[in-house]
Amino acid sequence: MGFVSLLPILIAVSLALYTKRAVFSLFSGLLCAAILINIDSPFQGFFYLFDPLLVNSLADSDSMKVIFFSLLIAIGVEIMRQSGGTQALVACVLPLTKTRTSTMITTWFAGLIVFFDDYANCLIVGSSMRSVTDRARISREKLAYLVDSTAAPVATLALISTWIGYEVSLMDKAMNSVEQHLYAQKADVSSVLICDPKHQLETPNISLNQQEYTLQKRDFGWESSVASIPKDWSLLIDGKQIKGKNIHDKANFAVTIEKTALKPCSVAQRDHIPNVVTHVYPQQSDQTRIIIPPETQPIKTNGSYQTETIDSETHLLFEQPTLVTFSNNDQTGSVFLSSPGTVRLEWFDNGIRQQSVNAYAFFMKGLPYRFYPILALVFGFAIAFTGRDFGPMWEAENAAKQRVAIKEDVNSPSWRALLIAIVPLALLIGSTAIDLYLQGTAKIGSDAPIFAIIGEADGYQSMLKGAIIFFFSTTFFALLNRTSAETLRAAIQKGGLHLVEPLCVLALAWALGNAISELNTAQYLVGILQGSLPHALLPSIVFLLAAGISFSTGTSFGTMGTLMPLALPLAIQLQVTPEITLATAAAVLSGATWGDHCSPISDTTILSSAGAGCEHISHVRTQLPYALTTGVISLLFCSLPIGWGIHWSICLIVGSIACIAVVIGKGKLPLSAAETTSSAASHQT
Asked: Is the dihedral of CA 315, 321, 327, 333 positive or negative?
């Protein structure tokens, strides 16, 4: 559908920023998407909006877990507040929050502590620090920003989190995916062979690159003489298609017909050997093509080669693009090495391939290249430490500072009240982490790396269990503190009501994300990657593309899943430097986080405003300039320079300095009451 597929998100974002009404704006965007999906019958779009878009978004089990998790946390926090637990927590934190600056820094550090999940971070830190920041006359918008700017960045960088398993698995699949093609084999006459000894083929005609040919019966099946086998060929028989390649002047290939597809023939026919070839891409640039085979010698090759032994390993040296076939007992495998460089091979179930890469080691090496999450943390700390703001955030902070300061004395908390605050939060964090570990070990055992264990767990289920424990433990300790049943009932009702609008926004955002997926918006944006790209610009282009997809769909996980299988293999196939390969993979994750921060339909954006008790659109308006500034700095001072060979450490240092310089140079301190009065008087005169 092309550019039109962007209309729903453009409508939702534009209306949200103009009307400041999140539910109306998202509903309008969703309605537009539903009509576009049913463009042939627009009236049907009104029904399609509710079923299946909204129904499916709420019927998803993970979505319901998030809803129950959010409700239980919100209700538990309200019980904590009305039972005196929040006041006890405030009393404990107050020594660390004597000034506005120390309060903001404490809030920022609190965001680092809840590192294992971004959803939990948004709700726990926002709800826990709300009373503290209110006392310091810090705006709810600033609290929401500090929460949001640490939630996803910390979760995506942490070595143990609900993100890492997903990220590593994507890298593993993208790096170690095997690209195999059926190659035609050199022959005296160009022909197509079809293995069909019972002659069950009904249509004795084939189409090779849209050219019709007639088949002749043979003992093994069918054969058709063709003028030539194209370099990139496509064979069509009875609506079934298979594609392959050819590097010879005269060649043939053999296929067999199955119920749903055409596949390479599994047995040799005439002089033809089944030739399913794995493409390999060297990781180092050399003048010579070097293959390090797995303790075997080639049985067939289309070119001459030399053999060298280096460190007890056999190296096969080729001068020309090379197709090499190896044999190992009953297994045969072929590889095609088109570009200069060194490649190490290994056997696997379907033949031979390039040696697999340890995805977790690759993930660790790529951490310094995650420029946006790192700079988002730096920018957030600079905002907290200096107390300076600009744009809509300065206006929000200026208004908050004019409020009358809360000066009531805070008595030393009783031990019962303190238990309401501390024990449920500790149980929430601890039980979630323990359940993640238990789930993971039940699937892959305790000997696996911790990241793999966490990655195998159902993060939503663990968070829901933690929220249930949090709710009941809060209720128990509230009763222990002699909280009345009427107070508990009121707290449950009020806590649930707090999340009615945020959950409506969340449901609409999920539905809009699903609708945009149906419109293939991500595929349209990914199409930008097609064609020749300057290698140096690859990390920057991928970063912008990931941000665009994440902003449009509101899901960083969906963006990673869409783009990683395309961007990382592209970097490998282009044979860019190892640094650019690492930066490209990191750009997918960083861009997804950036777009997530900017998007009004992002889960974490919605939950951050809910946890902080801030109007959602106000949070979007005030955070957007900060997120955009950090993203542009990340692009100009990190992603672009890394493509031209600048070391990541220099990029991060310069980027961090730029973040601090922008905050100090552009930001202003909020006005005092006297300055506000003076400014108002001058305007009147």
From this structure: positive
Decide if 251 contacts 275 (C-beta within 8 A): no
pLDDT at 583: 92
In whole angstroms, what is the distance from residue 18 CA to residue 617 CA? 10
Tell me the pLDDT of the chain averaged across its residues. 80
Task: Please tell me the distance from the alpha carbon of residue 323 to that of residue 370, in angstroms, as a whole number.
Answer: 38
C-alpha distance from residue 150 to each of 75, 363, 374, 376, 608 (Å): 24, 20, 10, 8, 10
Delimit the domains of the chain by residue range.
11-173+366-666, 185-274, 279-349
Determine whether 67 is exposed, middle or buried from the number of CB atoms within 10 Å of its CB (0-12, 13-18, 19+): middle
Is residue 663 scored above 90 in pLDDT? yes
Which DSSP helix (H) or strand (E) runs through 234? Answer: strand 232-237
Task: Starting at the earlier edge strand, list the strands of the sheet with 341-348.
Answer: 305-310, 313-318, 289-292, 341-348, 351-354
Fold adopted by 185-274? Immunoglobulin-like (2.60.40)
Residue 616 has pLDDT above 80, yes or no: yes
The answer to whether the beta carbons of residues 436 and 459 sit under 8 Å apart is: yes
Encoding tokens for residue 523?
Answer: 């595929």
Crossing angle, helix 118-135 and helix 100-113, to 10 degrees? 160
Query: In angstroms, rounded to a whole number, what is the distance separating the alpha carbons of residues 3 and 644?
Result: 32
pTM score: 0.68
Instruction: Confirm if 366 and 164 have CB atoms less than 8 A apart.
Output: no
CA–CA gap between residue 660 and residue 375 (Å, rounded): 10
- pLDDT tens track for 509-560: 778 777 877 777 655 655 555 555 678 888 999 899 889 888 877 777 767 7
Token pair belonging to 564: 């990683």
**Contact criterion met (CB below 8 Å) for 296 and 326:** yes
331-337 and 276-279: which strand pairing? parallel
